[in-house]
Automatic annotation (TrEMBL):
Residues annotated as domain Desulfoferrodoxin ferrous iron-binding: 41-155
Protein name in UniProt: Desulfoferrodoxin
Gene3D superfamilies: Desulphoferrodoxin, N-terminal domain (2.20.28.100), SOR catalytic domain (2.60.40.730)
Domain of life where this protein originates: Bacteria
Classification of source organism: Bacteria, Bacillati, Bacillota, Clostridia, Lachnospirales
Class of this enzyme: oxidoreductase
Organism: [Clostridium] fimetarium
Function (record text): Catalyzes the one-electron reduction of superoxide anion radical to hydrogen peroxide at a nonheme ferrous iron center. Plays a fundamental role in case of oxidative stress via its superoxide detoxification activity.
Length: 157
């Protein structure tokens, strides 16, 4: 599972990430909490959709392709990384960059063949031919970003 469900209380602003779904209704301040739907508000996509890159088990996130504002009035509150077996949240504050870095997301290593220009070739015929031990990043990576004004956004690696 690489989906996590977030809920918000419209009265007090409490926000929760559901660890496991039991099927009941989450309530706060005497009423049902709102399930947050990603990318559901009308706002600039380029400033909100997380841009996710990975290298050697390190996952870098920037929100978004055009940097999101980080003022007191309008900022990214947190960035969450969800993989098959892990949820990690980085909290941000106004004035910080709308970015997060997550480490130790190396998955299984796989041996691949590469050709002359480091392109991956299916088998090793002719030369040059190199065996490269390439470590894969954990699969099923979903990244969420929460804007205090425009809500939840997500992207997959
Ligand atoms: Fe925003």
């Amino acid at each position: 599972m690489s989906e996590t469900i977030f809920y918000r209380c419209e009265i007090c602003g409490n926000m929760v990430a559901l660890i496991k779904s039991g099927g009941g209704t989450l309530t706060c301040c005497g009423q049902a909490m709102t399930k947050l739907e990603a990318n559901s508000t009308d706002a600039a996509k380029e400033k909100h959709v997380p841009v996710v890159t990975s290298e050697s088990g390190k996952i870098k996130v920037a929100v978004g392709s055009v940097a999101h504002p980080m003022t007191d009035e309008h900022h990214i509150e947190w960035i969450a990384l969800v993989t098959g077996n892990k949820v990690e949240i980085t909290y941000l504050k106004p004035g910080m960059e709308p970015k997060a870095e997550f480490t130790n997301y190396t998955g299984d290593a796989e041996v691949i063949f590469t050709g002359e220009n480091d392109e991956i070739v299916p088998n090793c015929e002719g030369s040059p031919c190199n065996f490269v031990n390439r470590s894969q990043v954990a699969n099923e990576v979903t990244v969420y970003a929460y804007c205090n004004l425009h809500g939840l956004w997500k992207a997959n690696l």
